[in-house]
């Protein structure tokens, strides 16, 4: 899959299919995101426990990608199980799902994907002629369907979101909400890709995103891969670039969106949103419907992952901070809905009040 686009009179090709994760006969193959941008190495997960490790250690990361990775983990576990009966296999699949669900708490896509695999298991089991093999085959097909659906959702978000992008100028993004955070194309970066493909002359400003540096390492790598002009900013530079008039819009992804429109995303997103409001710059969130959690009333109820202190105290194995100093490392923050100009989903663009627009959009989908 490759899209052509013109920028400053030059023709580029979007090589959109960065192989973030892939189902293979031997297991699930992941592009190791901890090694990017300096090395393009792959990790083969041969068991569901390998998949859980790959998610916990952030070899794969980004809400939609970890959701589909977990679904593939369930499918892989079912495939390699030695269970002899449907009941035995079902019990094992439930245990595997618990292990996968315990990897990262904030991105709701993980739980959505595991829940969808569990519903599929129930549907497969309830068939009169259900066998261990039919369940295995059905779960593998479901995980692969979710992979395809994720790419299609990103493309649809791109189509809806492109129209919101400026025709020319700087767009700021935080963390990596690109092909690397999804099964391909990306959410926030998908919107940027689609806008560029339609002829918008965009220059992306990528926040470095301390401490894991998803912006500096991953967003920069991914956009350069496609030839989209990109500049990396340290996290403390956004205010000055906004004031200098370089940023015309902000677009970020999300890990979980509560029923009132509060958005959990990578730590630092909240600060960017407040700055955008102060400078009257639109702040857009692009996320698939699987990121929307209508069962969580507000952002206050979203569990925020606390990661190891070593991510802050060290970089590249080198200690940066004095031994024994206090460290906090919340991996996400919550941006209150009042800062969000619009939420871009594969079902369309939502505007405030989000408590109503999210509910309405869900009701329309249920009716359809
Ligand atoms: O800790 P990470 O790298 O998994 O966090 C990722 C983010 O916060 C992304 O912005 C979010 O998942 C949206 S991905 C399309």
Cα separation of the termini: 29 Å
> What is the gyration radius calculated from CA atoms?
20 Å
Query: Largest beta sheet, briefly?
Result: 7 strands, mixed
Structural class estimated from helices and strands: alpha/beta
CATH architecture of the largest domain: 3-Layer(aba) Sandwich
The name CATH uses for the topology of the largest domain is Rossmann fold
**Low-pLDDT residue intervals, each spanning 5 or more residues:** none
Give the oligomeric state of the chains in this entry, treating copies of one chain as homo and distinct chains as hetero.
single chain
Order of helices and strands: EEEEEHHHHHEHEHEHEEEHEEHEEEEEH
Describe it.
The protein has 368 residues and is an alpha/beta fold. It folds into two domains: 2-154, Up-down Bundle (Four Helix Bundle (Hemerythrin (Met), subunit A)); 158-367, Rossmann fold (3-Layer(aba) Sandwich). Helix content is 40%, strand content 20%. The chain is built from eleven helices and 18 strands. Helix 2 (63-80) runs antiparallel to helix 3 (86-101), helix 2 packs parallel to helix 4 and helix 4 (108-125) packs antiparallel against helix 5 (132-162). The radius of gyration is 20 Å and the shape is globular. 5-S-methyl-1-O-phosphono-5-thio-D-ribulose binds at residues 61-64, 107, 175, 177, 181-182, 187, 214, 253-255, 265-266, 331. 5-S-methyl-1-O-phosphono-5-thio-D-ribulose binds next to helix 2 and strand 11.
